[in-house]
Amino acid sequence: MKRNWFLSIAILIMSSISLAQERITLEDGSRLGVFMVKPAESLDEPAPLVILMGGGPGNASISRDTSIWLGGGFAERGWIVAVPVSPNNRAFRGVDNNNKVEQLIAELQKRAEISNDQVLLAGISNGGMSALEIARRDPEKYLGVAAVPALATSVVDNRPLSGFPVYLRIGGEDQLGWADRFDETVNALTEAGVDLDAAILDSAPHMFRMNWESLDAWLEKITE
User: 20 to 30 A Cα–Cα from 11, which one of 28, 99, 187, 220?
Assistant: First the structure.
């Protein structure tokens, strides 16, 4: 049933977006696989960029699926979406992989079709935690983080994110038990002064259908 739902969503989304896989050379000389998702229609002006990171190891299969079902939703709303493929099956956690995302942004913003304004970071599960890690390094570069889901802890210094917008959703029936850590995550972020929009989604699993009405409202708030 879950796979049939995904296929149905994919068919609907693919009619309104453009999806391509690229290998992009970074400043450090490495090459990074990236799925690029764009609106199907030509844009009249440079589009805002969202870096969207998949869950688990962030491999090619996961990143492609993420490109379609969540990246496609952003692209339908006028964003250009880059979904990077982890070079070492470790998502984009840790300093080295954080650096690669920063280098990727620098390369993509050389393109005329992509705005040089602040970038939105988004991620699912491990990707959501990668997004928070990257934002903590230099929050001024970013519009915010959409973590659907992610966890945070007070063991990590979240104070660089004071005043920073974070959209967090965790499924109430999360198979990994993340709902049980919702309060811990919210407390860690709010104590650091994060501008947090957080909620538990009743009966939702670890990966859930995006509530675009809610996310659209948050995106409008941080881009106004």
Answer: 220
Fold that domain 2-223 belongs to in CATH: Rossmann fold (3.40.50)
Q: How many residues does the chain have?
A: 224
The per-residue pLDDT for 7 is: 44
**Domain coordinates in residue numbering, the chain:** 2-223
Q: Is 46 exposed, middle or buried (0-12, 13-18, 19+ CB in 10 A)?
A: middle
